[in-house]
Q: What sequence folds into this?
């Protein structure tokens, strides 16, 4: 349903003053009111986050790297709740790359312990995922995890498998090239299955897309991809899913500091682009009718 452009316009006027608002002590009620206003406009179905900058944040604060990752988890909860209040259907986060296993062993061990404990915390009774009916999917080459983390993954997914209002894809250990390769391999196995006539089977873009890990879990097309910390590259995250209509945003804020007033202009830009696309379609249709 089309939303009034005036709402987007009025909110966009506030955008240059976001730094002033960020300095104020915004109450939870005020935040909810702002999210309610934003939700009156067009809302993306699927938003992805490359949660970058935990280590640099920790160094800047004089903290241990492990503490930076812990603060990053708190930011995930904060941003996820914002997305759920906006009724965003699916959120995907890049939590751990396959290449991250090459980091110092102490850091990798701390990350595995954090993943194991926080997976269970996210899915505990009365927690965020249960409150909002979120189904958790852990997407990636899970066999690379220690057995204790694999067990936590299985239990966390089982605890939320009955939830159907929203989706949280935690991508770990993940790489987009690995996801695409696995999808192609699955397509080939399907074609070569004894029940199929491989001579008449065709592997198309749609076929590969349907075999992507995220798509098999019910994720809609990726509308927005956000990377924090000022780095402007995708780093092998959802390369296939980033298409012509995916809106890319590179925020200078480190992930542990990322919050509402970093996300507001991103949603406003999405709403503005949707409004202009609808206007273009309306003008084309109007022109066609008048010919």
A:
């Amino acid at each position: 349903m089309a939303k009034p452009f005036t709402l987007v316009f009025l909110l966009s006027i506030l955008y240059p003053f976001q730094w002033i608002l960020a300095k104020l002590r915004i109450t939870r009620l005020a935040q909810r009111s702002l999210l309610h206003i934003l939700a009156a406009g067009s809302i993306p179905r699927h938003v992805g986050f490359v949660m970058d900058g935990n280590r640099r944040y920790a160094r800047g604060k004089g903290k241990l790297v492990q503490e930076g990752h812990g603060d990053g988890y708190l930011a995930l909860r904060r941003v996820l709740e914002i997305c759920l209040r906006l009724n965003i259907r699916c959120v995907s986060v890049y939590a751990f790359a396959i290449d991250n296993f090459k980091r110092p062993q102490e850091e990798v061990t701390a990350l595995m312990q954090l993943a194991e404990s926080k997976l269970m915390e996210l899915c505990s009774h009365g927690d965020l995922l249960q409150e909002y009916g979120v189904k958790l999917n852990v997407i990636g080459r899970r066999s690379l995890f220690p057995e204790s983390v694999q067990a936590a993954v299985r239990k966390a997914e089982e605890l939320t498998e009955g939830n159907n209002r929203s989706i949280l894809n935690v991508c770990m250990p993940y790489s987009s090239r690995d996801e695409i390769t696995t999808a192609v391999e699955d397509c080939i196995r399907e074609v070569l299955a004894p029940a199929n006539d491989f001579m008449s089977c065709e592997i198309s873009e749609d076929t590969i897309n349907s075999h992507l890990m995220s798509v098999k879990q019910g994720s809609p097309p990726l509308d927005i991809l956000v990377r924090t910390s000022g780095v402007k590259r995708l780093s092998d995250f959802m390369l296939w899913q980033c298409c012509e209509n995916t809106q890319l945003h590179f925020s200078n804020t480190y992930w542990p500091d990322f919050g509402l007033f970093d996300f507001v202009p991103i949603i406003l830009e999405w709403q503005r682009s949707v409004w202009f696309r609808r206007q273009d379609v309306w003008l084309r249709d109007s022109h066609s009718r008048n010919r």
Summary: The mean pLDDT is 88. The chain has twelve helices and six strands. The first strand starts at residue 46 and ends at 50. The first helix runs from residue 5 to 14.
